[in-house]
Amino acid sequence: MKELADYVRSIKDFPKEGIVFRDITTVLQNKDGYKLAIDKMIETAKKYDFDYVAGAEARGFILGAPIAYELGKGFIPIRKKGKLPGETVYEEYELEYGKAAVEIHKDAIKKGEKVLLVDDLIATGGTIAASAKLIESLGAEISAMLFLIELVDLKGRERLSKYNVESILCYRGE
Length: 174
Known about the structure:
This protein is of the alpha/beta class. It has one domain: Rossmann fold. The protein has helices at 25-28, 31-45, 59-71, 126-137, 156-159, and strands at 9-12, 20-23, 52-56, 74-80, 88-95, 98-105, 114-122, 141-151, 165-171. It has a 7-stranded mixed beta sheet, with helices on both faces. Strands 1-2 form a two-stranded antiparallel sheet. α2 packs across α3. It starts with 8 loop residues before the first strand and ends with a strand.
């Protein structure tokens, strides 16, 4: 049987020279790889007490929704600003070349509820840190953050040191 890492495609020099891109589309398109990824994430998620799974757009939806379904939890989408129809709250964060913002519905969670934040990858931690601020601004608590892949050299875990951070696969330099 293949290991989960065997399903991840590494593409050298993308998006620019010197970078190795960890492509999870090869995990998602393979029924065995996708099942293995979700099963491993569910196994890790079971260590925590939470009411909802929140997933960051778009791959956090792909990974977070089946986790929520399997564990009998609700799912909260965290979207790019301007994509949700109801009343929202948003949080801006810094990108390498500018700013971006994420948002959730203002009534998505209530004070005291617990959330498992899910995304495909943790690099610098900017998107997920902004997502956590959003959730906390509504009075909820982050039980843990769960990622399929962690790029260790980019030190996102250090930025998120006040949270329980879990990664299924870790990659260091090349």
